[in-house]
Specification:
Blueprint lengths: L2 H5 L6 E5 L4 H12 L3 E6 L2 H11 L3 E5 L5 H11 L2 E6 L16 H7 L1 H13 L3 E10 L12 H21 L3 E7 L14 H9 L10 H13 L7 E4 L7
Parallel strand pairs: 1-2, 1-4, 2-3, 4-5, 5-6, 6-7
Helix pairs in contact: 2-9, 4-6, 6-7
The structure holds NADP nicotinamide-adenine-dinucleotide phosphate (NAP).
The site of NADP nicotinamide-adenine-dinucleotide phosphate has 29 residues, from helix 2 and helix 6.
Length: 245
């Protein structure tokens, strides 16, 4: 096999990334396209779609879609046809960072929008995924690292990781996996405004790798899981060692 072929592992493959217009999802879109895949990137807002278009140009099909829209998902999958690798990195819900007791039931439930979005992608998308293909979702370090004010993230992340293992068993031979990022430099922290650098430095100083992660570092794990035919039902942590700190 030539060096070119080794670098183009996804040549001829169809890859769909829901939540592929920003952050980790967009980095995954770029990485998969660089390996030769035909990529479909989806998100809700025109703002993110336009920003993504400016980066990927016409190499990637950009589709406006809410992951909670059953008909929209069905129409997308029908248009794509057979999917080799189906990814969702969509946030899909609204997280509240507060002590559990101080969260309203509505706030706690709203965080589970992420799980329901992933569940829809799996339920509607599974029959379109090639038997030698894969489905990959994104959880987060709080799934197994418990800190104050993070109960919503922890519960949703844990549920996503368990759903992935259930799906890996039921959908085999399709492989189903999850990537668990730590603190990654995406739009998720934009609400911190001018304080972002200082606050992120404080959040990451106790980690083994004492800096914020880059979306590309997480995307490489997502692409690894697409490419490795022996990986299923597993979680790949890309978190700067947060679980050990
Ligand atoms: N960044 C971190 O530190 C971190 C840590 C742990 C876990 N994660 C997880 O990593 C995943 C990616 O997050 P990110 O940091 O890359 O965030 P991001 O930069 O905000 O990207 C989120 C993407 O999801 C899309 N999206 C959100 N809700 C959607 C919906 N209902 N339907 C379709 N698309 C939707 C967004 O586009 P629109 O808003 O335009 O729809 C965007 O393309 C999320 O599951 C997040 O929980 C991130």
């Amino acid at each position: 096999m030539s060096t070119d072929q080794q670098q183009q592992n996804l040549t001829g493959k169809q890859v769909v990334v829901i939540g592929g217009t920003s952050g980790i999802g967009l980095a995954t879109v770029i990485a998969a396209a660089a390996q030769g895949a035909k990529v479909w990137a989806c998100g809700r807002s025109a703002e993110h779609l336009d920003k993504a278009r400016a980066v990927v140009g016409d190499r990637v099909e950009l589709v406006q879609l809410d992951t909670h829209d059953d008909d929209g998902l069905r129409a997308l999958f029908e248009k794509v046809g057979q999917i080799d690798h189906l990814v969702s990195a969509a946030t899909g819900g609204t997280r509240t960072l507060k002590p559990f007791i101080e969260q309203t039931e509505e706030q706690f439930q709203a965080a589970f929008g992420k799980l329901w979005g992933y569940a829809k992608v799996a339920r509607i998308g599974a029959s379109y995924v090639a038997k030698d293909g894969s489905i990959t979702f994104v959880s987060g370090a709080p799934a197994r690292r418990f800190k104050p004010n993070m109960s919503a993230l922890s519960c949703v992340g844990g549920a996503v990781e368990n759903m992935v293992r259930c799906l890996a068993v039921e959908l085999s031979p399709v492989r189903v996996n999850v990537v668990s990022p730590g603190i990654i430099d995406t739009a998720l922290f934009d609400w911190m405004g001018n304080e972002k650098n200082e606050r992120v430095a404080a959040m990451t100083q106790g980690q083994l790798v004492k800096r914020i992660g880059r979306p590309e570092e997480v995307a490489s794990a997502l692409v690894y899981l697409m490419n490795n035919p022996y990986a299923t039902g597993t979680t790949v942590d890309v978190d700067g060692g947060q679980l050990l700190s």
